[in-house]
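Tutorial, part two.
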Amino acid sequence: MEVGGRDLIAGLPRTTTVTSQEIREALSEPVHAMIEAVKRTLERTEPELSADLVHNGITMCGGGSLLRGLPQVVSQATGLKVRVAEDPMTCVVRGTGIFLEHLDRWHGTIDMSDEEL
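Running the prediction step on this input gives:
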């Protein structure tokens, strides 16, 4: 793939070609950190939620979930089914909006004082 940007050494605009192997290498450390964070979170998960995850799997959202092969890597690392949410780029924002519309009903699920509501 050809990409363009500013050459940090020369300070001038330029284009260069990057390979999929170079991209995989550049992303390997952040992907490994994500996998470790998911595994740490699963280790601390309440038994009821763990049972739900075993039954239903993990639903990934956000732009990172669109990285080719990431759901398979997460599945292999956790042993759980993994799928990408419908419209992963906006589902968190839409879900947050729904939560805020019903804050009076769900305020007990968040950890904050009454003054912050």
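The first strand starts at residue 2 and ends at 6. In part three we will examine how such features are distributed along the chain.
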